[in-house]
Amino acid sequence: MKRYLILEDGSSFAGEGIGASIISTGELAIQTTNFGYQEALTDPTNAGKILVFTSPMIGNNGINAIDYESIDPSVRGIIANDIALNISDSENFEDLSSFLKEKKIPAIFKVDTRALVHRLMEEGTIKASIMDTNDEHAFDQIKALVLPKNKSAMVSTKNAYASPNVGKTVAVLDLGLKHSMLRALSLRKVNATVLPYNASPVDVENLRPEGIIISNGPGKPEEIIDKITPVLDQFYGKYPIWGIGLGFLVLSDYLDFGLVKLPQEFNGINYPVIEQNTNAIWQTSMNIDQLVLPDSIKMNMNREYFDLHSELNAGFWNIKDKIVATAFNPEGAPGSHDADEIFDYFLQMME
Question: Where do the Carbamoyl-phosphate synthase small subunit N-terminal domain residues begin and end (predicted)?
Fold first, then answer.
């Protein structure tokens, strides 16, 4: 079935349709992950995006039960060079086509993704639609579309829930939390309670936590900062606080650090960061469009991490103020486990 990716400037890319047969509109985003397409598809940070995979083929491994980052994906579609239509016969895996239909996600393959990625790198944010036609009416619809604000409100849990264990107690503010973060905490026997993005200081205090995590998520810090500020005002310096992804940006904004828009959003698993004290280089997973200007940090940090591409700050921690912040996802999923030790730093802070 022929389908079209229609860009807001009137251009289009033709390919073969797969997945849900619906019209879908969103923001195009490059996804550089060479593996782990299931994690990328189900990552709440990708809410509202149409993902353009740079990998030559996706789908050959199928979908399995343990690699979901959220049960109900919020991506608006996927574009790929090629999609494997058949996988090995196994009851433990579902083919990608069936998964996309089940989750109501449209997809197009046999698209010149190299040309599309070049366009995205030149133009930045582009609105687009997946449709069965490429007439002028479709272009008008895309131009009139207003991309949603405060996506964290869309993907955050509506009710608090527990991820119980027997160790330290942590309150997690869900701005678009990945399941793998809870898995990583559980492996370290952390007793986590997940709260909505707009939880009050009283909600947090009632848990008597020994630490607070502000999770990853979609959107921009200015859309969410007013909901997180009361919690930071109440508990900054009292409990260890760790911001990840969007949480990193929120914490940096709260501390009045200068946020710099990246020329191209980081969305993949191959972003190297260097640690200032040891010169250790980690390959990290990021899904973020801003980092911190190093000169804007007016406090002494025990450790800082810098993106090797831009030389901007991608993470820091300060023992005195009990803060940790990472633009990257330390648990990977997908990606390497180079940054796993960040979990240990945070747990030590709670001692």
Answer: 1-131
